[in-house]
Amino acid sequence: MRADFLQAVFDRHSEGGLVTLCVDEVYNERATECTGFNYVTASLGVASATWRHEKLENTTYYAASGEGNIVASELEFSTPTSSIQASHLRAFSLASLRSIISMTSRCHQFRIYVLERPVVVFPPLSGTASYSPSSKNSACGNIPTVKEWNNLWRAWDLVTIQMIPQEMLLQKPIDLRHKCLFYIGHIPTFLDMLLSKAIGGSATEPSYFWKIFERGIDPHVDDPDHCHNHSDVPECDEDWPTLDTIISFRNGVRARLLQLYDDIDGGKRALTRNIARTLVMTLEHEGFHVEVRSNTLTLSRKVLRSYDQTLLYMLIQRAGSGTLSPSGFTAPPWHLLKQQWDATPPPSTEYVTLGPATVILGHDDSEGDDFLPDKEMRAEGREYGWDNESPTRQVQVGKFRAAWRPVTNQEFFAFYTVGSAELPKSWVEEDGEIKVRTIYGPVAMDIAAGWPVLTTYEDLMAYAKSKGGRLPTEPELRLFLDTYDVGYEGGGNTGFRNWHPVPATAGMESEGGRGTNGGIWEWTTTLFDTHDGLVPTNLFTGYSTDFFDTKHQTVLGASYATIPRLGRRTLRNFWQRGYGYAWVGARVVWDI
């Protein structure tokens, strides 16, 4: 399925912003006459006689219009990360389309998708170019293009401007973080300060934003009075700048960034490694803020700390009672999705045995090389990362067993009900019923039963011990993910394919064990600390080293709101063990 063809079909046939697409897995030129097609017409409530043979760009297909409704009893729900469906999801994302739900005809010949065109869709990395002033398009490297910036800005503006109501801007959904308005100002301030460091120039006006939006807060969970240095933000609501003033500042900073691209394209400025790294880091910083990250950055002699919580982590705490649902995305059809999730087959075996093995961690990307005479101007065709990703190193992993899938809400609920853990921050009690938080408001436990549970390191370690196991080390989890996780390219639940977790699918023999973890980060027992060969960044001083405090654990994976480029295998995230708001779960492993 070509992206341009899918876009044209959607433009021609979408009704109410939706198109139901039936994909014939066994090509039949006279599809409407095959027995299997009867299942499709019955399941969609469309009369066979209404199907029309149409042609578009030398491609023939069948189309029907009407008031049909999906009849779930006529369909079978299939695993969304099968290799066939993964190829379809890649095609949809390249066409800027999103699958709301997918099903299979009972004859297994047709796959049925309900598609929409939301305000933002992230293409697979295989379809994402790296910026190159010489060719405008490069398959190698990860320097963001203007197109990638514009796509991320659509996501950021959706989360900030459209999902936070006016009355919530000066509220603090999480006590350990700033008010919502701070983060709307912090992102352009961060970009403005790093641009000045990379290419010179003064602050975008109003320049005093550098003082109030420079640093976020990250107090210790077990001692909230202990907090790193941070910006002096206004104490009174009336002293904060207005949203309109911040948006004007944001627009000015974005224009400054686009001018940099124009200057490089026009030959007025060379693309150096330092500038390329600045572009990568500032885009990824914004991507982390859309979802999850505490960053530590330095500008000149001042530490630019962004110890803040993702906005979505904050907004989900008020979902259903303040936060607005994402505009341009169809609300989940929970009753149909539950049937799909309930039909997800369990793993073929309880666990998988891995190791002994040699695991390669990291990549070679030393910022210290950026100004070497023979490398400074060789900016293209390489992958940039954060300082803790480098250098490449080998680690020996012994033999162990690992659960195919992370601990689920249902499994942890049984652990919770016997008094073994506190209520996770991802759950909420309403009218005596435990529900699971989503950006659309809390949902019943039976709907989210198969999702991975999101809770603290301590609680999941206690759960693992109750099962006679433990949590994995970073190399052990890296080995499992390298072997069995399909990622965004393979249909995984990241990059806003959904605005919530889904049941994990790894462990099925039909797919060689490969599948998704449901769209979460995963805890490891590895402390976030230095390693041999790590050279702390000078561009963002303290980014990693400020968190070598024995309180942060390394986490791997990617959540449903992680942009695809942050799902690269070398990336390492980190969270305080007792912090319960992050979208982090875990799987149990056992020693052999």
TrEMBL record:
Residues covered by the Sulfatase-modifying factor enzyme-like domain? 383-477, 493-590
> Which pathway is this protein engaged in?
Amino-acid biosynthesis; ergothioneine biosynthesis
Domain DinB-like: residue ranges: 159-291
Highest taxon above the source species? Eukaryota
| Entry keyword set | Iron, Oxidoreductase
Q: Does the keyword Cell inner membrane apply?
A: no
What is the official name of this protein in its record?
DUF323 domain-containing protein
